[in-house]
């Protein structure tokens, strides 16, 4: 049996996007995860390894749009 994955760390992501990167809310919410990761990397902040396809598929399954 697979252990449940941790939920996405929204509080941390929003805090970094708005507080550290000083993005406007509109800019933050229109960014893709890849764009956010690249912005963090450009600021010299460590980012996690890219998602694997399996992890992305799992996230899509657990958090469907609409």
Automatic annotation (TrEMBL):
What InterPro entries does this protein map onto? Answer: GTA_rcc01693, Phage_TAC_6
Any matching Pfam family: Phage_TAC_6
Quote the NCBIfam families the UniProt record gives. Answer: phage_TIGR02216 (TIGR02216)
What name goes with this protein?
A: Phage tail assembly chaperone
Q: Which lineage ranks, top first, belong to the organism behind this chain?
A: Bacteria, Pseudomonadati, Pseudomonadota, Alphaproteobacteria, Hyphomicrobiales
């Amino acid at each position: 049996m697979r252990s449940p994955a941790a939920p996405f760390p929204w509080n941390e992501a929003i805090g970094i996007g708005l507080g550290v990167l000083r993005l406007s809310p509109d800019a933050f919410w229109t960014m893709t995860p890849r764009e956010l990761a690249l912005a963090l990397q450009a600021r010299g902040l460590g980012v996690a390894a890219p998602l694997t396809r399996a992890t992305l598929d799992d996230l899509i399954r657990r958090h469907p749009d609409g």
